[in-house]
Each structure stands twice: as C-alpha cells, then as structure tokens.
C-alpha cells in the first residue's frame, strides 16, 4: 500500500467530518436507550476501518459525545472490520501508539477486529448500538442487501447506522467519472493481452467502484418505512480536482493525486494477486501505475466529481 495512504485519502475524510454533526441527535438517543435498558456496554461497529486513521478521527467524535457531553463512562466496545487482506497490524499500531487515538484520550474502551467482507453479516443479530460505514459501500454490489437487511439485523432496536454513498444526480456527471475508473481495468486487460499478466490475475484484480444513481437511492430510502427511519440525509458535492489543488499545482499533479488516492487502498490488494517474487510484483505494478497516469493525462475530459450522500438511519 502507499506509504502516504492517510494523506491521499484525506478527500474521503473531509466530507465525513464536515457532516458528522448530523448524527449527534441520533447517537444521543441510541446511547440514552442503552443506559435506560442497563446494557452491559455500548457497542460500536466500524465497517471499513483500513489502517485506522480516518476511523479513529470519526470515532473520536462519537466517543466525545458519550464521554464528554453525556458524562457516560460505561464500557465501550469497538469492533473494527475490513476485508481479510487488510493490514490489521497497521490498525493496531495506530490505535495503540497515536496520541490522538481514542485509547489515549478515554478510559474503559476495548477494541476488537474482524476480517471479512461487509457483504456478509459480521456480528450477531441485535448486538450493536451504533454502526458506522464511511467510504465503503461503493466497493459493493448495488443489488446486495448490506444497506437495508444485514446492517438492520446487526443493530439493536433504537440503534443508529451512519454511512455515506458515492452518488450522482446526473448521468452525464457520473459517466465521465466512471470512465476514468474503468480505465484502470482496461489497462489490466491490455497487460494480460501482452502476456505481462495472466487473465486469471486480471480477473482477481477488482476495482468494483459503484456510483449509486440518485433515483436508486431515493427508491431504497422510500422503501425503508417498515425498517430504518431516516434521521438525516444530505448530498455533498466532491470535486476531486478542487481537492487536489490543495496539495498540487498542475493538472498532471492532480492526476497523480487522483491515481494515488484511488490506489492507496486497492493497490495492496492488486499486488497480492500478481504472481512472482517481490521484485517482479513491484515491476509489474509500477508498469500499471504509470500506464494509468498516462491514460488519464491523454484524456482531455479528465474530471472527477460526484456527490456523496451522508445518511443517518435509526432502527425502529
């Protein structure tokens, strides 16, 4: 994975942090119910934890509500989940060593980890008070039930599910963005045709980014009347070019920033599917990396912009 992963994923973090306030009322109600029912602990489920940098910042917001505003010192249990291929060692090191980690800031908190796809049920029925899932659902399948069915089962009654989705209000806007991501898969296929990679290796390298059309999201939310109840919903426009200008000075640098952001997490998974020793793997991966940048540099329509919908749902 990229060594500067935390930096290149900052565009994902900012839209989340700027809208966490929308979840405050729901979090307070969920915790109040937990206290009222005298549950043993407050359980928080963090889906898509990666190395923990973004997760820790987000969790600090929720824990500060519980500890500092509600003055509740009950045991808090946090379950961090991500794919089996995730580097959980980096997660544990961050949680234990970072001075801004929730472990350093508050007492009576324990954490666990779970390596499995979020498309599976990951914890027992009715076991979680709060579930957070930021910048993860776009890696799934638009037809799978992780949003409505599985997460609903995992939450206790009165529990809160806070998440976001990559979305788009217009097909034209999304078409340009999706084409840029499809370019990565096209390069894999080119390399297979050139015998640099096998077709099986290419098949195993997935960049399954899903942008949900606004019409699909609206339909799903409308059908949640007998399950989740919407507490908050907000569309946030993300212009990756604008984000990149905060860290770069030219169009080409912006493209490199976008590629690094895209591959910051997926890059490690891609490397795992390439056969050969470390030198061979790095050589092939670097070829792909450079081709991806060149492909985007030659695209006059390069522009990455889309909406992120921030959702706060409660289980009734």
UniProtKB/TrEMBL annotation:
Gene3D superfamilies: Vaccinia Virus protein VP39 (3.40.50.150). Pfam families: Methyltransf_7. Transmembrane segments: none annotated. It comes from the Eukaryota. GO terms for molecular function: S-adenosylmethionine-dependent methyltransferase activity. One of its GO terms (biological process) is methylation. SUPFAM superfamilies: S-adenosyl-L-methionine-dependent methyltransferases. PANTHER family: S-ADENOSYL-L-METHIONINE:CARBOXYL METHYLTRANSFERASE FAMILY PROTEIN. This is Methyltransferase type 11 domain-containing protein. It comes from Dictyostelium purpureum.
């Amino acid at each position: 994975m990229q060594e500067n992963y935390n930096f290149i994923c900052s565009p994902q973090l900012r839209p989340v942090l700027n809208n966490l306030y929308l979840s405050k009322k729901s979090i307070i109600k969920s915790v109040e119910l937990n206290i009222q029912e005298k549950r043993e602990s407050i359980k928080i489920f963090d889906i898509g934890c990666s190395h923990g940098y973004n997760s820790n910042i987000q969790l600090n917001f929720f824990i500060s509500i519980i500890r500092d505003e509600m003055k509740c010192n009950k045991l808090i249990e946090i379950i961090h989940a991500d794919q089996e291929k995730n580097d959980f060692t980096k997660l544990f090191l961050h949680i234990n060593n970072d001075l801004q980690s929730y472990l350093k800031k508050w007492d009576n908190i324990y954490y666990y980890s779970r390596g499995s796809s979020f498309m599976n049920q990951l914890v027992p029925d009715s076991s979680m008070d709060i579930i957070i899932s930021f910048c993860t659902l776009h890696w799934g399948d638009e037809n799978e039930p992780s949003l409505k069915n599985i997460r609903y089962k995992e939450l206790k009654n009165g529990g809160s599910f806070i998440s976001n989705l990559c979305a788009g209000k217009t097909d034209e806007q999304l078409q340009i963005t999706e084409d840029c991501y499809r370019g990565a898969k096209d390069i894999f296929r080119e390399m297979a045709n050139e015998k640099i990679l096998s077709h099986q290796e290419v098949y195993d390298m997935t960049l399954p980014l899903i942008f949900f059309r606004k019409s699909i999201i609206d339909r799903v939310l409308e059908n949640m009347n007998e399950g989740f109840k919407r507490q908050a919903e907000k569309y946030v426009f993300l212009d990756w070019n604008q984000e990149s200008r905060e860290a770069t000075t030219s169009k080409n640098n912006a493209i490199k920033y976008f590629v690094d952001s895209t591959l910051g997490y997926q890059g490690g998974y891609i490397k795992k599917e390439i056969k050969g020793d470390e030198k061979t793997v790095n050589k092939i991966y670097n070829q792909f990396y450079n081709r991806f940048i060149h492909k985007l540099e030659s695209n006059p329509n390069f522009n990455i912009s889309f909406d992120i919908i921030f959702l706060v749902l409660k289980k009734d």
